[in-house]
Amino acid sequence: MARRCNLTGKAVLSGNNVSHSNRKTKKRFLPNLQKLSLLSDSLASSFRLRISTHALRSIEVNGGLDNYLLSSSNTNLSSEALSIKKRIQKAVQIKE
């Protein structure tokens, strides 16, 4: 399982640990990923996603999963998030 956020695509970064004597050793910066079930209001179903805590805060600020996906651009979303977004857009169009 890849260490990548399903919504934002945030992934592992690499860098160096630098000691006092200026020796450099490789280090991996892992994203803080959480497995959560997020509820979609328009689809009336939940989605089990592995998302970063940054994405979770963004979802809460935007007022839910539906609003977050509809307001974000397609280039910033992963393929799984794009498929959920398309389903939400279809459901919103049907309700209108």
TrEMBL record:
One Gene Ontology cellular component annotation held by this UniProt entry: cytosolic large ribosomal subunit
Keyword Protease: no
Key words of the record: Ribonucleoprotein, Ribosomal protein
Biological processes, Gene Ontology terms: translation
GO molecular function annotation: structural constituent of ribosome
Superkingdom per UniProt: Bacteria
Family, similarity comment: Belongs to the bacterial ribosomal protein bL28 family.
Protein name from the UniProt record: Large ribosomal subunit protein bL28
Gene: rpmB
